[in-house]
Amino acid sequence: xxxxxxxxxxxxxxxxxxxxxxxxxxxxxxxxxxxxxxxxxxxxxxxxxxxxxxxxxxxxxxxxxxxxxxxxxxxxxxxxxxxxxxxxxxxxxxxxxxxxxxxxxxxxxxxxxxxxxxxxxxxxxxxxxxxxxxxxxxxxxxxxxxxxxxxxxxxxxxxxxxxxxxxxxxxxxxxxxxxxxxxxxxxxxxxxxxxxxxxxxxxxxxxxxxxxxxxxxxxxxxxxxxxxxxxxxxxxxxxxxxxxxxxxxxxxxxxxxxxxxxxxxxxxxxxxxxxxxxxxxxxxxxxxxxxxxxxxxxxxxxxxxxxxxxxxxxxxxxxxxxxxxxxxxxxxxxxxxxxxxxxxxxxxxxxxxxxxxxxxxxxxxxxxxxxxxxxxxxxxxxxxxxxxxxxxxxxxxxxxxxxxxxx
Length: 407
Description:
13 strands; Serine Threonine Protein Phosphatase 5, Tetratricopeptide repeat; 14 helices; flat; alpha+beta; five-stranded antiparallel β-sheet; Apoptosis, Tumor Necrosis Factor Receptor Associated Protein 2, Chain A
């Protein structure tokens, strides 16, 4: 018996239409072209000192990433081209990473510092482009303006304040992607590892170690603790392990704190803070983060320490920053310490009136030196609170030398 070959038309699946005259359903796809946008603010402090560096000489911003490429802003105080005789400042955006034929839209904004909002804007966005987006051929290619702004006008304008000017840059990298229908998909459930290990901790099933904390017995599993904490690993399996006993005493830590620590070890997330130490929900999470920060440092739990740093960073106020700074110094919380120093420096007069500042002054004199240096760094506009500065610095500079206060 002869067999008739099965012929598949383009876009037709087997069995889609065996009868005469059957039509294949059309397949579909779409190409989406859009921009991936990112911005960078570039502040130039000491503009008058940059003048005279020479035509074609520039200062540049830090690199920033948009659309998978690195970019930088170049500012020419004396202009980019000799024929302009330094009458204009020039501003360009450069492709700072490897790339070929990178298509992008750009916007450069000279910011009005008077508060009137009269910014000088040069933009590709929100306007028709006859030639399409600009194409940068290779690393080092630039887009911008040789005659961005007349220099004499700039120097008497509201764009320049306290010898400083700011330029905002937006880059929109053009990307294209072809998308087809997803005929089949399977939803993936959320990870359950923390939930399962949390249930194991809550049940105490097959627990092989117990901790006595303030008269409370808390059961746990040695292998879980050792896998998560190098300190527990040393205590439970190392040379200092207390062999022959399965009940270990925890000193200098309250039971609610230790239990919260173990819950994080099992679940990899902070437990519910409601009722922690009997406090209201408004302050419980902050108090728990403070205690767990110390516990994380004690047991070598770096992720827990960073989680607590992030939480305490959100809750910094004038009244709490000095206390939080001291806590960060005690427990190696370097990121939280940096945030506290900047916040305290920006709000120095008010922070000095807080109760925590006296504790800081008496117990952490080295932090006062670091705070003094931070104040000097952030005080770029010369608007320092002189009375607070004099009281805080005691008339000395960052190196301890006595200086004379300006009137």
